[in-house]
Amino acid sequence: MSQILKLLAVLLMGALIGYFVGNRQELAQSSLLTVQQETLERQGKAIGQLKSDLGIKETLLATQRAAFEQLQQTLKDQEAQVQEQKRQLAFFERIMRPTGEQVGVVIDNLTLQETSIPGRYHYRLALTQPAKQRELFRGQVQIKVEGSQGDKPRTLGSRELGMKVGEGRYALRYFQLLEGNWQLPEGFVPDRVRVTIGKEGRQPAQELRAEWGEVIKPLVVAPPAPAPAVQ
Questions:
Q1: Phi, psi for residue 72 in degrees, rounded to 5
Q2: Among candidates 99, 158, 103, which has minimal Cα distance to 129?
Q3: Share of residues in the chain with pLDDT > 70 (%)
């Protein structure tokens, strides 16, 4: 009986050895496949983490870029405000401390402000009298906007600009601001502005020529109010 058991044990061991020897290649391939799958999973997780890190860095970069652009715009606005204050100070100094001997009205400066209506601009024209001995002068300012429409040169007068009758009249001893609105025709591209005062009596002829880009000021849009905090 014991011999039979020994024989069975030997046969079983031989069968097991034969199975592992016969299936060694298949087992090796299965192990290699498992390793490759685990490697791919680790690589997939690493790529996912890299994408997440890249997304965070791109968000930070966009935030920094937006903050930098906002800082540049703020600096630009402040510089424009300083220049405007300097211009106004020089304007009032010319009024309060006249040093010239020229008789008559002088076209001091012109500014244009964009409005919310397409093609409409608010103008402000400053006239002064630089002479120390001032007298009352009356007259009419002529305004023309030169440009093009449909690839053809065109000049707009006060009527084409929508100015009211008598809008350009002045009567001043020290200074006067003429204000109003211009409405440009659709498709008209402005290039420059020409403001003139004709010679009349003691009033000498005056002319101011300015490029459109030099006198135009963009529409100031107030920043949106911050959203109320959620309690």
A1: -60, -45
A2: 103
A3: 70
Structure token pair of residue 60: 């930070």
CATH number of residue 139's parent domain: 2.60.40
Q: Which of 225, 220, 191 is nearest to 80 (CA)?
A: 220
Token readout for 199 is 């010679």
Cβ distance 138 to 170 under 8 Å? yes
List the structure tokens of 34: 């498992």
Q: What percent of the chain has pLDDT over 90?
A: 36
CA-CA distance, 39 to 146, in Å (whole number)? Answer: 73
Predicted local confidence at residue 86, as pLDDT: 66
Distances (CA, A) of 210 to 72, 109, 200: 27, 9, 24
Q: What number of H helices and E strands is found in the chain?
A: 3, 9
Give pLDDT, residue 21: 52
d(CA 41, CA 138): 89
CA dist., res. 110 & res. 130, Å (int):
17
Q: Same domain, yes or no, for 113 and 87?
A: no
Q: How far is the C-alpha of 145 from the C-alpha of 185, rounded, in Å?
A: 11
**Distance between CA 197 and CA 203 in Å, rounded?**
9
Nearest-angstrom CA–CA distance, 113 and 73 = 18
> Quick check: helix, strand or coil at residue 173?
coil
Domain with 159 in it = 100-217
Number of domains in the chain: 2
Asked, for residue 50, whether it belongs to a domain, the answer is yes
pTM of the complete model: 0.57
